[in-house]
Amino acid sequence: MEKRSGNMATAADSVATPKKARTALRRAPAPKEEPGHEAVAGEEPTTLDVTLLAPDALECPLCSAPFEAAIFQCKNGHAACRGCCDRVRGTCPSCRAPTGAIRCRPLERAIAAMLFPCAFSAAGCERRLRISEKRAHEAAFCQHAPCACPVPGCAYAGLSLHDHIRLAHQGNGDRDAGAAVRFVREATVTLHRSMVFRVLLQVPDSRVFLLANSGNVPSGRSLSLLSLGPRPDGDGVLEFTMVVRAGGETGGALSLSAFGPVPCARRWAGPEHLPAEGFLFVPDAYWSSSGSVSVTVHVGAEVGRGAAHGRSPRNR
């Protein structure tokens, strides 16, 4: 009996117990950490390769905007952003239950922990961004987003707007709005009332500036400066000084001036869109009998002036 028992124990030891199969998650290479997104000390971030089968899964079903901040839900689980909860006056449009008081914390935490590729990743952008940062990055900061040519009738939109304008739109002198002026830090141009803009090409940085001339103001014209391209990296800010001399003479006794940050955009909205702020008003009395003024524009970059993006140009 002892021998049989020993044989049974030996047989039991020799049979391996089947182990439960483990399911491995497929992991993508860890993305580069963005400033302010450092992992908590002692924690190793887990990167999962996730495919959204429904692109609108992370959008507010009422306004179709991405969930970026607080998310609310009614008692039946219908989610909405804060703005839509206010617009529907606290009543869920799906089930008529009260909404706007219950936060959807799990969805908020899940979205806050996600990093999304830039929409221009195919063009070379390697940034991974929070959903709350994605829209601003793609609209103003991405160095790989295309910029549209402002010349009427031109359909160009690409990454080499400076070279495109220099090669495709030579212009025919000061009376041609398409005549681009190349400069390093300062440019002086003659602007006629009939011109809706003059193109300024900054040589060192290959930046394109638009000196816009709008007539949607009484008793004069409004001049503004726009950079067609992304904003400078980091905290850099483009600063300008604009001097307008009466009568189109560079040595004129009468002058107006303004200075401040240069706004950046991918596309010019057109002469009918007068900026609410950031323009220099030039009265009718400053324009010569031929309808021109001399405009000197100085552009420089300053570092560490990120807050200046919200400042308006000041008139002197």
TrEMBL record:
EC number, UniProt record: 2.3.2.27
Chain ranges of the RING-type domain: 60-96
SIAH-type domain location: 113-170
A Pfam family annotated for this UniProt entry: Sina_RING
Pathway field: Protein modification; protein ubiquitination
Gene3D superfamilies cross-referenced by the UniProt entry: Zinc/RING finger domain, C3HC4 (zinc finger)
PROSITE patterns: ZF_RING_2 (PS50089), ZF_SIAH (PS51081)
GO biological process, one term: protein ubiquitination
Recorded GO MF terms: ubiquitin protein ligase activity; zinc ion binding
UniProtKB keywords: Metal-binding, Transferase, Ubl conjugation pathway, Zinc, Zinc-finger
Reaction catalyzed: S-ubiquitinyl-[E2 ubiquitin-conjugating enzyme]-L-cysteine + [acceptor protein]-L-lysine = [E2 ubiquitin-conjugating enzyme]-L-cysteine + N(6)-ubiquitinyl-[acceptor protein]-L-lysine
Ranges where the record places region Disordered: 1-44
Similarity-based family: Belongs to the SINA (Seven in absentia) family.
Function recorded in the entry: E3 ubiquitin-protein ligase that mediates ubiquitination and subsequent proteasomal degradation of target proteins. E3 ubiquitin ligases accept ubiquitin from an E2 ubiquitin-conjugating enzyme in the form of a thioester and then directly transfers the ubiquitin to targeted substrates. It probably triggers the ubiquitin-mediated degradation of different substrates.
PANTHER family assigned to the protein according to its UniProt record, in alphabetical order: E3 UBIQUITIN-PROTEIN LIGASE SINA-LIKE 10, E3 UBIQUITIN-PROTEIN LIGASE SINA-LIKE 4
Protein name per its UniProtKB record: RING-type E3 ubiquitin transferase
Species annotation: Panicum hallii
